[in-house]
Specification:
Layout lengths: L2 H6 L5 H15 L10 E2 L2 E3 L9 E3 L2 E3 L1 E2 L9 E3 L2 E3 L12 E3 L2 E6 L9 E3 L2 E6 L9 E3 L2 E3 L2 E2 L2 E7 L2 E3 L2 E2 L3 E7 L7 E8 L4 E2 L2 E3 L1 E7 L6 E4 L3 H11 L6 H14 L10 E4 L5 H20 L5
Parallel strand pairs: 2-5, 3-6, 4-7, 6-8, 7-9, 8-10, 9-11, 10-12, 11-13, 12-15, 13-16, 14-17, 15-18, 16-19, 17-19, 18-20, 18-21, 19-22
Antiparallel strand pairs: 1-2, 23-24
Helix pairs in contact: 3-4, 3-5, 4-5
Pfam family, one: Pentapeptide
Protein name: Pentapeptide repeat-containing protein
Amino acid sequence: MPPDELVRRWSTGDGVARARDVLERLAKGTALDGLGLATVDGLVDLRGLPAGGLDAHGGEVVGADLSHAWFAHAHLTGVRWRRCRFDRANLSAAVLVGGGLTECTMRRADLREAVVAGGIWSSVHLAGITSNHLSADHTTFTGTTFPALRHVEFTACAFVDCRFTGRLAEVRFLGRGQPAPMLLRDVTFASSDFRYAEFDGMDFDNVEFPDDGALIVVPRSFKAVAERAGMISLRRRDDVGKQLRRFLSEHSLRPGLSATAGWAVSRRDLAPDVAELAASTLHEAQQQLRAEGVIP
């Protein structure tokens, strides 16, 4: 059924009353049983549902197809979604607080300016999402696959067994100043195409980056490594050395950085001479600190 028809069917005939019933139950967090809803591929057929601006609290939705549904500006608090499809759904400017998604897909969904806070996303596939100005706060992602991302901010989020498959442009992983270190564990970055990606205060535990020389990575103890690299760089008293020391200070000396946090930057984000000096001094600093037993 074409997308326009999926949407239109909720505004004609019996679809009007059916949409009202579905939205009322979603808002109250009650089950959708007994509404006579059809199924598609074994999932409750909610494709094209007009749920823009929905204010929903609690409840669990299991096994629903919400492809092409409209959740723009919705506020979903404590709602748990399991085995649901949100493929090509519009969740722009939606706010998802608490709750979470498990074994769901959001292929080519629109998540522009959406806010995710305090939930758990497990085994979620986000291939092809539109992510401009998406923000996530205190959210745990496990087994989740991320596509290329642009203008995304993750604050105090944890990532376990996740995979980032594409370019990261102005994507920020912010963990500084949290009571416990924020974690990237068993995470793979398949692409080194980073442009102003920022890792600030995130602990790296078995994190894989492409080994193609495009990135400068300090897998642990960046604060100590940056301090030692700054001392090593004093051999260079020229503008390149000064630029590097300034850059390292800006990234390592702000309050709240844990002693164990890792760090990474794209060489393209630095002037070529500064990038070359950064790579060599940070490498030498790590070697010295390992030899001294300061870092593992």
